[in-house]
Write a structure and sequence with these properties.
The chain has a single domain (9-232), classed as TIM Barrel (Alpha-Beta Barrel). The protein has 13 helices and seven strands. It has helices at 26-39, 58-72, 87-99, 118-131, 142-145, 151-157, 173-183, 197-202, 212-215, 217-228, 232-251, 254-264, 281-293; strands spanning 9-12, 79-83, 104-108, 136-140, 163-168, 188-191, 207-210. α1 (26-39) packs across α2 and α3 packs parallel to α4 (118-131). The chain is globular, with a radius of gyration of 18 Å.
């Protein structure tokens, strides 16, 4: 693992708490921020996948970032998600998000029509990076976005002075090895839920950005600390105990699982935004049993 400078460690993907009408529950979001910081997390990421950023209008996104920045009060870095179908829209959101006082942005390109040409991808992310001065974390999730960075594309984008991080959610460890081999420290990698985080950190990854850390922050931190100390055998055994939660996320909707778990822990974060489906009783039972075995209920 690289030395602890810049962004590193556990960055929970914050959920966006809403009531039954879809209105933002501001006090709940503040409570969740304070709770996670009290557990010792290294940073916070609002408006990522678990935060349902792609489902929110700009006014709500802006308010979420304002609240998280205000509640965090400089105690840990805030890396806010920027996700817009158009390059122009993403640039606008990136500029406005930086003005709200975040420490960095995490940007993904959701798609409707296919984006198959790597030059399109380079142009999109380069435009975002050049519109802001803060650090930029690239995010790829080909399972949902239906595109992925090539290693050559990442080489080109890493030449931008403020692109220095990648959250890699393909789940392809071979691809990850190719990235690490080709780019070294030019791109620092955060693990996603799709990976086994301990393997990513074995390859030099700097941490874990994912929804599970909202529910199990202390366990996520313990895993990171084992990896930081290169106690790989213990880290792998510890990861095995955490993996059932990731399996539940893969079987059910991610935001629905995290929100249901937080409700069980006493945070009234509400349901996922329609047309997403709220976790059914079977799913809630699965999540409840996993969290109970982990000792966080």
């Amino acid at each position: 693992m690289v030395p602890e400078k810049g962004f590193y460690g556990i960055f929970p993907y914050l959920v966006t708490p809403v009531d039954q009408l879809g209105n933002l529950r501001e006090d709940v979001l503040r409570d969740l921020v304070n709770h996670l910081i009290s557990k010792g997390i290294h940073g916070l990421t609002p408006l990522g996948s678990t935060g349902e950023g792609v489902y929110l209008d700009w006014a709500t996104k802006k308010r979420v970032v304002e609240i998280v920045v205000e509640a965090t009060a400089g105690r840990v870095p805030v890396i806010a998600g920027v996700n817009n179908l158009t390059t122009r829209g993403a640039v606008h959101e990136a500029v406005e998000t930086e003005r709200l006082g975040v420490d960095g942005i995490l940007t993904i390109l959701p798609t409707y029509f296919p984006v198959n040409d790597q030059s399109q991808i380079i142009t999109h992310f380069r435009a975002i990076a050049r519109a802001v001065s803060c650090p930029v974390v690239l995010y790829t999730n080909p399972k949902f976005a239906k595109w992925d960075f090539t290693v050559d594309t990442l080489k080109i984008l890493s030449e931008e002075k403020n692109i220095g991080y990648l959250k890699e959610a393909s789940g392809n460890i071979g691809k990850l090895m190719s990235i690490v081999t080709a780019l070294g420290d030019r791109i620092r990698i955060f693990s996603a839920t799709a990976h086994v985080p301990v393997f990513v950190m074995m390859l030099g990854g700097v941490g874990w950005m994912a929804g599970p850390a909202c529910l199990i922050p202390e366990q996520a931190l313990a895993l990171y600390e084992l990896a930081r100390q290169k106690r790989w055998e213990e880290a792998l055994e510890f990861q095995k105990r955490l993996w059932p939660l990731n399996m539940a996320f893969q079987k059910y909707s991610l935001a629905a699982c995290v929100k249901a778990g937080l409700e069980m822990q006493g945070f009234p974060v509400g349901p996922p935004l329609p047309p997403q489906k709220e976790l059914d009783e079977e799913g809630k039972g699965v999540v409840r049993r996993i969290l109970s075995r982990m000792g966080v209920l």
